[in-house]
Sequence to fold (433 residues):
Amino acid sequence: MARPQLRRWLTAAAAKRLAAVAVIGVAGSLAGLTASAASASGRSTVTLQFWSTYNTADKEASTFDNVVIKRFEKENPGIKVKATVYPYADLLNKYLAAAAAGNPPDLLRSDIQWVPQLAAQGVVVNVGKLSAFAAIKNNTLPGPLATTHTHGGYYAFPDDTNTQALFWNKTDFAAAGLSGPPKTLSEMYADAAKLTNSSKQQYGLGVDGADIWNMAPYIWSAGGTFTNSSYTSATGHMNGVNTVAAVTQLANLYKAGDIGSDFAGGASAVSGEQGFPKGQYAMYIDGPWAVPTFATDTPAPSYGIAPFPTGPRGSISTVGGEDIVIARGGQHITDSEKFAEFLDSSFAQGAMAAQGDMSTEISDSRAEVARTPYYRVFAKQLKTAQVRPVSQGYSKLDSFWSNAIGEILAGKTGVSAGLTAAAQQANGALQGG
Fold:
């Protein structure tokens, strides 16, 4: 998942429009290989087109342009890279339209949830067959690697990753007589009740939405699931015993007033990132991007970051991030492979990690934490973090789940009934409906 301002899922209408995009033929791929071979021979300068949603409001995009690309071009004379940034909401549509027209960019920095759709539509290369991928695969954290695998192959190079951990307000905990953050889910829920202070409009726990990204740590750690392991069915998983129990626990805390307005959402909802530094939430989960945000608050909150509390199945958070795909109809596949490989190098990963894009590579973790100490908890959390369903039907599945949770929190349906209905809807999405 991308940074907060970029986290937007496709609407059902958009998904239908995208499904209509034509599949690129094999002829385009062969043409790309031929052109790439010519460039590798040194007969001409090649310019690779690279599309992304890098943030231009901070140093993320400029670091990529002025540090990463410059270094690659210096080490690879004869290859230039032209990077273009698009808004998150536009990028997937633009890429698919360009692919249908036979003129896609050579590389795309894709949201991890787009990879299954791109593979299903035949517009990206199975990079698992490329020589550069084997070493990168062996050095990639399990969660980020899982985001690249779909339809029986690996269709992306891992690029960056992130996850969520527990933020807890030290001042609020001390006032409630609590010495430190909860280590288990049961402790978290008990602490949420103790930390809630209606006179201060303070909630013990913030849950930043009813979507899978925000709820998965609570579900997975409690032993619940959303689908089977092959991502083909939700029945018996989305409405399984452990999932129902986890949702029931959260719904009861919400009804008791121990979870804030961020959970149900709506116009008056206050997100954890807004409410936590103001004392409205004593604890909530978030990613590493929250740290620089809190540094600008006056006064800055006194807080700690801890692993997500352990449940019966462990401490399991959600894998986010982006992957790099190579266009099947691209003109310079060999050179694109070289650039994708470079983006997974220690140099490139380190440069972008300094801008908030955590490395997917196992070997980079120690250096990354040394440069940015608050990454330590997130790096540890990534070792057990889990990927959301890797399916082209994920956006629909997420919508069905979120809608069901909204109905449950509003008291319009029971937990078991709501999740059973959502699971039945999700089955169709997972099976291509």
Observations:
- The chain has two domains: 4-162+321-380, 165-318+393-430.
